[in-house]
Amino acid sequence: MASLVDAIEYGAVRGAVGVLSAMSWDHAVGIGARVAALGYRPLGIRRRVVETQIATAFPEWDAAHVRQVARAAYENLGRTSVEAALLPTLSNERIVSLFDGEGDWPVMAQAYAEGRGVIVVTGHLGNWELAGSYIAARGVPVEGVTRRMTNPLFDRYLTKTRQRGGLGVIADSDAVRRIPRALRAGHVVAMVSDQGTKGMASTFVPFFGRLAKTPRGPAVFALRSGVPVVIGTAVRLPSGKYRALVEPVEVVETGDREHDVDTVVARYTAVLERWVRAYPEQYLWHHRRWRRRPEDEVPPAAERGESRE
After folding, report:
1. Residue 126 and residue 97: Cα distance in Å, rounded?
2. 36 by DSSP, 3-state: which?
3. pLDDT in tens, the chain (309 residues)
4. Exposed, middle or buried, 261 (CB in 10 Å: 0-12/13-18/19+)?
5. Conformational region of residue 165, where left means phi above 0, alpha means psi within -120 to 50, and beta covers everything else
6. CB atoms within 10 A of CB 307
7. Phi then psi dihedrals of residue 47, to 5 deg
8. What's the CA gap between 23 and 49, in Å, rounded?
9. What is d(CA 161, CA 81) in angstroms, rounded to the nearest whole number?
10. 288 and 54 in contact (C-beta within 8 Å)?
């Protein structure tokens, strides 16, 4: 049941979306970037977390470069949030027009053409929500696995927003039942798999040279179903348009299921790391990626004494 605080938060979000919807796309997205930048400075919301994680991932960078990328990451989060909120107002043709050519779309098209369904792994890089809408706009049925929000009003609103954008929604609590059904229907199933959330089946694999707790669901379902697996997202180009990044992920069965799952998880995480290295300012550094670590791992000096924001 929604509380008064839930209702206030929901009302604020709906009001903001209403105002942004009355603006041009570029103007609204620009406002999102500027407002989000305030979170970095002067407000300092999770600033230490973001800077520490960037410095840990790129130890060769000096402090000035870390701060530059950190601020850009806040701006990217603002753009991404506004774009995701406004996606349902766009036609399929308009969504496709946000991209600079096909990019790696032929990789997705080839996997989908097999007719067995496709598992798409993605991460919090670029605009992952736009990537899902782009798949739908290209006429491919796609369903995304999502976690429920703590605010029930906002959760229902977000679900409806995604559905209006052409994206089917599978709650993570229904994943075991609904993912196989979607794959049997030949649909694409998208999963965000770069945050080690408590209670989620995960494994530790390398990410920027350190073990990071990473969801193993895409690998498990891939090995059970035998469908093609790709990793993909949409990254913003200097022109303001997006590029579709898609790569196939090799899935090999050796008879050792645990080993095979860990291998697949490591493969798609390695691709994500490569993309983050290419577009570090478009990654969501706000989530403490290495917060959960193997018990015998000693944290690097950069993280000792890190704020627990």
Report:
1. 17
2. helix
3. 778 887 888 788 789 888 998 999 999 999 999 999 999 999 999 999 999 999 999 999 999 999 999 999 999 999 999 998 898 889 999 999 999 999 999 999 999 999 999 999 999 999 999 999 999 999 999 999 988 777 888 778 777 878 777 788 998 889 999 999 999 999 999 999 998 776 678 899 999 999 999 999 999 999 999 999 999 999 999 999 999 999 999 999 999 999 999 999 999 999 999 999 999 999 999 999 998 777 656 555 555 544 333
4. buried
5. alpha
6. 10
7. -60, -45
8. 33
9. 13
10. no
Tokens of 34: 């500027």
Coil, strand or helix at 242: strand
DSSP letter for each residue of 123-154: -SBS-HHHHHHHHHHTT--EEEEEPPPSSHHH
pTM over 0.85: yes
- Other beta carbons within 10 angstroms of residue 282's beta carbon come to 24
Q: How far apart are CA 181 and CA 201, in angstroms?
A: 20
Contact by Cβ (8 Å): 248, 227: no
Task: Quote the tokens at residue 153.
Answer: 């009003």
Residues contacting residue 195 through CB under 8 Å, at least 6 positions apart: 124, 215, 287, 289
User: Which amino acid, one-letter code, is at 31?
Assistant: I
Measure the CA angle with vertex 282, ends 276 and 288; round to 5°. Answer: 75
Instruction: Judge whether 241 and 99 are in contact, CB under 8 Å.
Output: yes
**For the chain, what's the residue count?**
309
- Provide long-range contacts, Cβ within 8 A and 24+ apart, for 150-156: 151/2, 151/6, 151/9, 151/10, 152/1, 152/2, 152/6, 153/2, 153/6, 153/7, 153/9, 153/10, 154/6, 154/9, 154/10, 154/13
Between helices 4-21 and 25-40, what is the axis angle to 10°?
Answer: 130
